[in-house]
Amino acid sequence: MVRMDPKLVVAILLLIAVSATADYVRPKARKNLDFPRKSRGSSHPHQVHISVAKDKHMRITWVTDDASSPSVVDYGISPGKYTASAQGESTSYSYLFYSSGTIHHTVIGPLEDDMVYFYRCGGGGPEFKLKTPPSKFPITFAIGGDLGQTGWTASTLDHIGRCDHDMYLLPGDLSYADYQQRLWDTFGELVQPLASARPWMVTEGNHEKENIPLFKAGFQSYNARWKMPFEESGSNSNLYYSFEVAGVHVIMLGSYADYDEYSDQYSWLKADLSKVDRNKTRWLIVLFHAPWYNSNKAHQGEGDDMKAAMEPLLYAAGVDIVVAGHVHAYERSKRVNNGILDPCGSVHITVGDGGNREGLAEKFLNPVPEWSAFREASFGHGELKIMNATHALWSWHRNDDDEPVRSDQVWITSLFSSGCLTEKRHEFRKILMSP
After folding, report:
1. Where in the chain is the domain with CATH 3.60.21.10?
2. What is the b/e burial string over 49-80, where b = at least 16 CB atoms within 10 angstroms of the residue's CB?
3. Which among 96, 343, 331 is positioned nearest to 221, based on CA atoms?
4. Which of 104, 231, 261, 301 fits a 20 to 30 Å CA distance from 411?
5. How many whole angstroms separate alpha carbon 196 and alpha carbon 48?
6. What phi, psi does 306 have (nearest 5°)?
7. Which EC class does it fall in (predicted)?
8. Residue 16 above 60 pLDDT?
9. Contact (CB, 8 A) for 259 and 313
């Protein structure tokens, strides 16, 4: 039997949330930031970001203008003293009249958990510092989607930088390059201070497509620049994958990859969920771009087909929290499944308002659906602090005149501790055995 701290019990009682629509009025969207071209050596590493690779390993990604620059990372636990080195791979791509720099991907490790490492890319250049995630609770995720590179994006990134987080989760729409490939480069520069220090785990949104029928396949830029651990998780596509960290299994699904019951993504998801041992992995979180539960007028119904195909599988597996982007407003649901309140359903959270140039989606549907607990049109970010096997604290921090203001907060109890998983095991086995 799990004993709870009395202070935690009091906090839970004080944070009972009621259905609400905030009357907050947000200023209009800000323009894209101006990025003057920088003068640097051709082998100078830039757009550095890190992501989780296989167990106890990190992938370091960076870009150089020089194709001959080595894809090597030197690293160690003391500044300027590198005790290990790893060799990786490089790629590049062309898009109409644009040619990318050389994009390097190098996996380092094994690494100690919850440890600071110092590293440099390409055998020279500046030194960077990263911190690996913890191996056990507590763990803190910063979460936000639809970033772009506007003045509001800069505000959001500043606030995330103040948050003592272990990892950043981004449910789609990164750069808002929209075919203008130089904007992928400026986005990489913009996020480097944060993305080079903590793992950024992302999935694709509609603005990553960039397909040109009969000429260019979709997601070329995204796949080349933001390589995620899809192979390590048994997926055959960079558009969907999973990873495990500190007792949390995180699944990143693709709203813009085939997802019906005959698709590769559905088959992979089914297999991935079957491998999760909930006696050891107490929390199950899923992210994708187009929300399944949305009471905003924007993008209404766009996630319905994916929801029809995959929600029964997520419900049977006991997914605790589902996070989406796409809609440029914040919304949090109560536990819901198949459109109705269900104590064994998932909490759905929409965070498609990191700072995009398109502005906020300020028009909500009325009356408020029974499943909607809180909704607000504001730029900002979320923080998910998973305290232990049974409780997590979710909070939403809006960018109120460039100051982070917490406007929503709630304790979430895991389905593991509620007894729901025992009831679901038979149901899940039936789905796994279905053709």
Report:
1. 135-433
2. bbbbbeeebbbbbbbbeeeebbbbbbbeeeee
3. 96
4. 301
5. 5
6. -65, -40
7. hydrolase
8. no
9. no
Tokens 């998983």 belong to residue: 421
pLDDT in tens, 214-236: 888 899 999 999 999 999 999 99
The helix, strand and coil proportions of the chain, stated in percent and rounded to the nearest 5, come to 20, 30, 50
Superfamily of domain 46-131: Purple acid phosphatase-like, N-terminal (2.60.40.380)
Strands 20-21 vs 372-376: parallel, antiparallel or unpaired: parallel
**What is the residue whose two structure tokens read 């003068």?**
39
Question: How far is CA 249 from its chain centroid?
Answer: 13
According to DSSP, the residues that pair with 108 across neighbouring strands are 58
3-state SS, 200-211, equals: EEEECCHHHCCC
The neighbour count for residue 321, using CB atoms within 10 Å, is 26
Beta strands 72-76; 403-413: pairing state:
unpaired
Q: Where in the chain is the domain with CATH 2.60.40.380?
A: 46-131
C-alpha 141, offset from chain centre: 9
Give the span between the Cα atoms of 18 and 373, in whole angstroms: 6
Contact 149, 266 (CB under 8 A): no
Contact between 53 and 231 under an 8 Å Cβ cutoff? The reply is no
CATH number of 135-433: 3.60.21.10
Q: Which of 55, 60, 64 is nearest to 197 (CA)?
A: 60
pLDDT for the residue 346: 98
Q: Which of 105, 159, 165, 299 is catalytic?
A: 299
pLDDT tens digit sequence for 182-217: 999 999 999 999 999 999 999 999 999 999 988 888
Based on the residue annotation, tell me whether 299 is a catalytic residue of this protein. Answer: yes
